Amino acid sequence: MRYLPLTKDDRAAMLNKIGARDIDALFRDVPKAAIVGRSAFDLPDTQGELEVERALSRMAAKNVSAGSVPFFCGAGAYRHHVPAAVDHLIQRSEFLTSYTPYQPEIAQGTLQYLFEFQTQVALLTGMEVANASLYDGSTATAEAVLMAQRVTRRSKAILSGGLHPHYAETVETVAGLSGRVVRTPVTPGNTEDIEALIDDETACVVVQSPDVFGLIRNLRPIAAAAHAKGALLIAVITEVVSLGLLESPGAQGADIVAAEGQSIGNGLNFGGPYVGLFATREKFIRQMPGRLSGETADASGKRGYVLTLSTREQHIRREKATSNICTNSGLCCLAFTIHLSLLGEEGFTRLARANHAKAAALAERLADLNGVSLITPNFFNEFTLELPKPAASVVDALVDKGIIAGVPASRLMPHDHAARNFLIVAVTETVSDEDCDALVHALGRAVQ
Amino acid sequence: MTMNNQGRPTAPGTVEESELPTISGDRGLDHEEPLIFELGRSGMTGVDIPEVQVSDTHLGGLRRRGPIGLPGLSEPEVVRHYVRLSRMNCAIDAGLYPLGSCTMKHNPRLNEKMARLPGFGDTHPLQPEQTVQGALQLISDLMRWLMVLTGMPAVAMSPKAGAHGELCGMLAIRAAIHARGETRPRILVPESAHGTNPATAAMAGFTVDEVPATPDGHVDADALEAKLGPDVAAIMLTNPNTCGLFEPRIKEMADAVHKAGAYFYCDGANFNAIAGRVRPGDLGVDAMHINLHKTFSTPHGGGGPGAGPVVLSAALAPFAPLPLITHDGSEFRFIEDRETLPHGAKPFGRMCAFHGQMGMFVRALTYMLSHGADGIRQASEDAVLSANYILASLKDVMSAPFGEGPCMHEALFDDSFLEGTGVTTLDFAKAMIDEGYHPMTMYFPLVVHGAMLIEPTESESKESVDRFIHVLREMALEAKAGKTTRFAGAPRLAPRRRLDETAAARKPILRWKPKELPQAAE
Amino acid sequence: MSEVRFTDQHEWVRIDGDTATIGITKYAAEQLGDVVYVELPEAGRKVGQGGEAAVVESVKAASEVYAPIGGEVTAANPALGEDPAKVNADPEGEGWFFKLKIANAGEVAKLMTKAQYDAFVKGL
Hints:
The complex is a heterotrimer of chains A (448), B (522) and C (124). Chain B is α/β, with parallel strands linked by helices and 522 residues long. Chain B contains 13 helices and 12 strands. Chain B folds into 2 domains: 254 residues, Aspartate Aminotransferase, domain 2, CATH 3.40.640; 122 residues, Aspartate Aminotransferase, domain 1. Chain B has a 7-stranded mixed beta sheet with strand order 1-7-6-5-4-2-3, sandwiched between helices. A 3-stranded antiparallel beta sheet of chain B has the order 10-12-11. A two-stranded antiparallel ribbon of chain B has the order 8-9. In chain B, α10 crosses α12. Chain C is an alpha+beta fold and 124 residues long. Chain C is built from 4 helices and 9 strands; from the N terminus they run βββαβββββααβα. In chain C, the strands form 2 sheets. Chain C has a 6-stranded antiparallel beta sheet. The longest helix of chain C is centred in the C-terminal third of the chain and has 9 residues. Chain C starts with a strand and ends with a helix. The model of chain C has no long low-confidence stretch (mean pLDDT 92). Classes of the chains: A alpha/beta (448), B alpha/beta (522), C alpha+beta (124). Chains in contact: A-B, A-C, B-C. The interface between A and B is large, with 210 and 211 residues.
């Protein structure tokens, strides 16, 4: 086996040094009945690289990759162009095959990029501090709700109907244990009256903008209403490229920002791994979950970075920790940081404008189709159309024409009959003019 | 003779040991590197994107007004910056990385290549099912490998890391207990447990009750049985345990737990010691997460992303979270909501958006197919063999609290051999850095004083392990002989000397700010 | 006339009339190492004898501080927020944690005297 360096002779010599007769002697604490042989596993034997590559490639070929067709799916995951340098750099051995930076003297590379990442996230979201990432946007949102419950010592969380349904279910699963989670009804295209629901027991209000339908939401009045009752506003973002064009949630009064960072530096990967961004106000840092890299100096006075404020975390606080999280999304943060560094202010804001311009042009063309209407007047690079028939059937019909037209809202909210004709369409810089023409043409025919 | 004086000196000459400071502040191949924010200039970019103007028509009056504050750099500058940062890191590819309980094994590059096939890496989690049948097949195949290797009937794939898997398992247990119409608030956790166990139990709404360890490093099975009762929901137990030992009374404990109406959660962090030889299902486990980044070598990546699927017993299987994957005879299908549940399914909820860490699934399945069941078994055996070889080779000079019996995949030492030397576990570990090694895990598990936990993994050749043993022996002998200069203040040869963690925690600086503005956390 | 008593959890309490000033002992401060953060109770909070009242953190550990005696918190040491190092520099003086209004003076009798505490620490 190509990955195992010990030879038969090595093994014999090592057993001899140990004073064990055979390998079984080393497993002597295992109950005899629990030791099984090769035949207990109906699984294949070792294979060479060529064979494995062939098997995996065959499976991969059964999928339609996003880059091979006109492609308009979003709803929480977005296809952007990632510069070649990003993937090259994250595969450097020193990044790819290192552990959590517990020994800072020999992990400054990781600690410094995490510090850069934290700074970038704070800048983008308009918040004072950010952590070194959580698993993804949905778990970051759940952690934000738990944190708001700790900060306010209240239990009720109000979730906007525009919050991605998967996110809402994730929050309910975790935060529903210790508190009450209230979801407002889904009202695409309309602004719900979430302010009216905030009361003295409310720990937080969770609002996504742009929301799951792509609608841009004004957070200011919600922040004001929440603060008036002593509650926190948690702003959720699933498309962080929007921050290159839109006002940051921090500027609008958010107390915690939970976001999915996949759009920057990370591929679609069929849903993961992604990178959860988490930012908040300075005064809440000790209630924050997740790792933090902090600046300090070494014994010779040189600037350096260490993991800090660890007393919040599970390895020290155990059952009193702010979260059980033990990892972050290290390599995905690195991809985020490198991609954003490559873009810079200029590239990032241009990218955002390019996305919006493309989406706006396509939305207007599609809305002109007979029987199709745009129900999200304000959007970034994603909008929702109401079709004259169920969107899922239209998407299936367009798959046969080699077009992946978007995400039918029924995929995310199957119980919501009113949403079955809604199609959520995302348009990024990776979509070409020909792709847009193809969608306009094919959708026009499909809805006839 | 003719004197040819054109030759230059070719011998290395004598090396001055003094630390002559360089003009640049860099030292040969080691460069100091500022923050990205201290580099760059406005207007520059490393990505060429055409400029377009956009109207405010669809922005709802929420267009960004001020700048973000990101620096502008060209591509070569960004590449150099991150290459230089990378060179300040220790990595498995570059050397033995004996971090106990972390499993720093070789990361085959084929895994990376496969994860980047467009059919996997460039597919969207919500694109129509008929366009991702290969991806669903991959997940389904991986599920089968995990179930067969563990001898368990079900597996939940969505948890994103080990701790997330623990939470998934504990929520399944909670749901199963509620379904029986019971409330059981208490979880038993051994004092040797990893910190995530009590943290998870608390997060899942339980209270934690500690079970002591016996003097020989095992969970006190008698104490455990005495603590069982109608209010106990489960025990969370790591096996092999955090001392690197297999729990010999595991089956007995599982039986007692079941008899008391509770469930057995096994922390699968150390599954790599027994994979292919022992099936946790045969030990009475009800739920166990598998750290794909440890046992199946999807890389650690400097602290993630990981993946933590959870195998479940028949009793817990109905409560597995959404989404589920089914095969209707012709096609794979996702079950993503409660409207279309198969008979008997009672999911407790959802762990995250979408379906889990697909990129890690591809890497793990690639690893499994490469090894095969025989290779996985051999890997476990080699990992255990190497750890025992280290234990046997060092226990005469370093103190091994449980050195009498065999260990599993990691060898545990304590600091009693350093008593009276003035050298601490920390000094000893930091001195290893100067010798070219990443330190072992220190001060964990907590049940041993000044713990040093060494996990060589199966990826090291005998020559590599022998050299490592030689270095540690010499270090131990020097410390004991009172030659302590190499320990005090070590490391000397790393990119940084010891860092001031106290200052970092007292006045946290968690982000860069421009010089003219006051620092963040003051 | 003030009187100082100790607990086996390494808190000290100075009794001045019906006011108790509470902190951690020199021994505890040495054991913890460099204190980096102290979480103090807000004024007005009522704590029972032995109840969790504060948290003291070093880089690698967090420890609960229990109220040696029950009562209502009247003040927390404002200096510790800015300079937690005071706990190490002067644990039984400037590094005090909080003050409370004693609810039941009878509880004092359960606490150790200086001599008893010193003997207790010696035996650890």
